TrEMBL record:
This protein's name: NAD-dependent succinate-semialdehyde dehydrogenase
Organism listed in the record: Thiohalorhabdus methylotrophus
CDD domains cross-referenced by the UniProt entry: ALDH_SSADH1_GabD1
Source organism, top-level taxon: Bacteria
Keyword annotations of the record: NADP, Oxidoreductase
All copies of domain Aldehyde dehydrogenase, residue ranges: 3-451
Transmembrane segments: none
Taxonomic lineage of the native organism: Bacteria, Pseudomonadati, Pseudomonadota, Gammaproteobacteria, Thiohalorhabdales
InterPro entries: Ald_DH/histidinol_DH, Ald_DH_C, Ald_DH_N, Aldehyde_DH_dom, ALDH_GabD1-like, GABD/Sad-like
Entry's family note: Belongs to the aldehyde dehydrogenase family.
Length: 454
C-alpha cells in the first residue's frame, strides 16, 4: 500500500509514501522498547535540553513547515505558521514545567516516609488526525516525551510528509534512536500495534468512530487510553452580550482552519431578543472572509482537506435547508479545481437538523434561536458531544454561572474555545475522555506509584 500526499487546493499528487512492511514495523516496535528503556533513565535536565532544541528548530524553519502543512492539507499559510509556533511553545512549556509537574509528592501516613511518584509508563502509540498535522502531534508528544516515555506516531494517511518531518525534527533535536518514530501504516494495522506487549498506552485524536475502535482494542488489551474526539461546541449569546464582539469572535471561532477544527464553534445558540441583530452582524463578518489560494497571505478560508469531507459537509447543509433552515450565505460548491467550500450561514435551525445534530467539519454556521437563558443551556447540553463551549454576556459572573452548567470539558467566557499548553484539554460524553496539556496531561501516561517506607 502507498500513501499519497495530495494538495487539496489543486488536487495535485505531491508525493507517494510506501507503507512499512511487517518486518519494518517489528523493527520499529523493538527500537521503541529499547529507546524507552534508555530515555526513561535520562535526567530531566537532558530531556529538557532536547525539548528546548526541538522548539528552536521549529521556530528556525517555521516558514518551511508552514508551507508543507498548507500544501498537504490546505490550511491558510498564516494559520499554518501559527500552528508551528504553538508547537514550539508546547516544547518550551514542558521543558520548563515538566520536572515540577512530575516531582514526588509527600503524603503523611503511618510510614516513616511515604510519597507518590510519577514514573514513565512505556512506549505510547499516538493516532493523530490531519487537521492540525503538527500541533496535534506535538501537544501529545511534548508531555509524553518529557515524562520519559517513547512515542510511536500513526498519523493520518493524507499528511505523510508532515509525519516524516516531525520525526526528523525530534531526531535532529537529539532524541535517542527509537524514542519517537513515525509509523506509515494503514488504519487496519493499528489494532495489531495496540495488542503488541511493548506498547503500553494509546492516545488518539480523531473521529468518534475511530475512538470507539481504538478504545475497544485497548480495552481488550487492558491498556490506558486518552481520547480526544469530535465536538459540536455551543456558542451561547445571551441578551446582554456585546453583539459586535460576539459576532467578530463567532466568525473566527467557526472558520479557523477553514472550519476543520474539533473545538470550532459549531452551534450558535442565540436568545430571541437579540437574534436578528446578531445574525446580521455575523453574516457581514462571514461575507468578508476571503476564500481561495491557501498560500496567499490574505486568504482566510482555504480548501477542505479532502473531496469526501466537502461532500459530507454539503450534504449536511442541503438536508438542513430541505428541513426548513434558511440559507443566508454560501451553501454552494464552487466550480474549478480544489475542494473549496464557502462560508455558509443558516438561520432558523432546529436541533433535529444535520447541521445541529451532527458534527459539521467545515465553514458552516448554524443559528438556533431560543427564548431565554434556561432554554439556551438545555439546548447546549442536548448533544452527544461535550468538548468545549462559549458563553457571551455583559455580566461576567452570570456568564460564568451559565458556563458551569454546560456539560463540556472546557468553558470560555466572552471568548472562543482554544487549546493552551497551560490548561488541561479534553471532553466528556462522545467527545472522549482523559486530558492533554497542563499538569493533568503530562500525568496521563505515567505510573502513579505509591511508595511506603517503614
Amino acid at each position: 500500500m502507498v500513501m499519497e500526499s495530495i494538495n487539496p487546493a489543486t488536487e495535485e499528487v505531491l508525493d507517494v509514501f510506501e507503507e512499512l512492511t511487517d518486518q519494518q514495523l517489528e523493527t520499529a516496535l523493538e527500537a521503541s522498547r529499547q529507546g524507552h528503556e534508555a530515555w526513561a533513565r535520562a535526567s530531566f535536565s537532558h530531556r529538557r535540553q532536547v525539548l528546548e532544541q526541538a522548539g528552536r528548530l521549529l521556530r528556525q524553519e517555521a516558514d518551511a513547515h508552514a508551507r508543507m502543512i498548507t500544501r498537504e492539507m490546505g490550511k491558510p499559510v498564516g494559520e499554518a505558521r501559527g500552528e508551528v509556533e504553538k508547537c514550539a511553545w508546547a516544547c518550551d512549556y514542558y521543558a520548563e514545567q515538566g520536572e515540577r509537574f512530575l516531582a514526588p509528592e509527600p503524603v503523611d501516613t503511618d510510614a516513616s516516609r511515604s510519597y507518590v511518584r510519577y514514573a514513565p509508563l512505556g512506549p505510547v502509540l499516538a493516532v493523530m488526525p490531519w487537521n492540525f498535522p503538527f500541533w496535534q502531534v506535538f501537544r501529545a508528544a511534548a508531555p509524553t516525551l518529557m515524562a520519559g516515555n517513547a512515542m510511536l506516531l500513526k498519523h493520518a494517511s493524507n499528511v505523510p510528509a508532515c509525519a516524516a518531518a516531525i520525526e526528523g525534527i525530534l531526531a535532529e533535536a537529539g532524541l535517542p534512536q527509537g524514542v519517537f518514530q513515525n509509523l506509515p501504516i494503514g488504519s487496519g494495522r493499528v489494532e495489531g500495534v495496540i495488542n503488541d506487549p511493548r506498547v503500553r498506552a494509546v492516545t488518539l485524536t480523531g473521529s468518534e468512530t475511530a475512538g470507539r475502535k481504538v478504545a475497544a482494542a485497548a480495552g481488550s488489551a487492558l491498556k490506558k487510553t486518552v481520547l480526544e474526539l469530535g465536538g459540536s461546541d455551543p456558542f451561547l449569546v445571551l441578551e446582554d452580550a456585546d453583539l459586535d464582539e460576539a459576532a467578530r469572535l463567532a466568525a473566527t471561532a467557526r472558520n479557523i482552519n477553514s472550519g476543520q477544527s474539533c473545538i470550532a464553534a459549531k452551534r450558535f445558540i442565540v436568545v430571541d431578543t437579540v437574534a436578528d441583530a446578531f445574525v446580521e452582524r455575523l453574516r457581514a463578518r462571514l461575507a468578508e472572509l476571503p476564500v481561495g489560494d491557501p498560500t496567499a497571505p490574505e486568504t482566510r478560508i482555504g480548501p477542505q482537506a479532502r473531496g469526501d469531507l466537502r461532500d459530507t459537509l454539503h450534504r449536511q447543509v442541503r438536508d438542513s435547508v430541505k428541513g426548513g433552515a434558511r440559507l443566508l450565505l454560501g451553501g454552494e460548491i464552487p466550480g474549478g479545481k480544489g475542494f473549496f467550500y464557502p462560508p455558509t450561514l443558516l438561520d432558523g435551525v432546529t436541533e433535529e437538523m444535520p447541521v445541529a445534530r451532527e458534527e459539521t467539519f467545515g465553514p458552516v454556521a448554524p443559528v438556533l434561536r431560543v427564548p431565554d437563558e434556561e432554554a439556551a443551556v438545555a439546548l447546549a447540553n442536548h448533544s452527544r458531544y461535550g468538548l468545549g463551549g462559549a458563553v457571551w454576556s455583559g455580566d461576567r459572573e452570570r456568564a460564568e454561572a451559565v458556563g458551569q452548567r454546560l456539560d463540556v470539558g472546557c468553558v470560555f467566557i466572552n471568548g472562543m474555545v482554544k487549546s493552551d499548553p497551560r490548561l488541561p484539554f479534553g471532553g466528556v460524553k462522545a467527545s472522549g475522555y482523559g486530558r492533554e496539556l497542563g499538569q493533568h496531561g503530562i500525568r496521563e501516561f505515567t505510573n502513579i506509584q505509591s511508595v511506603w517506607i517503614g
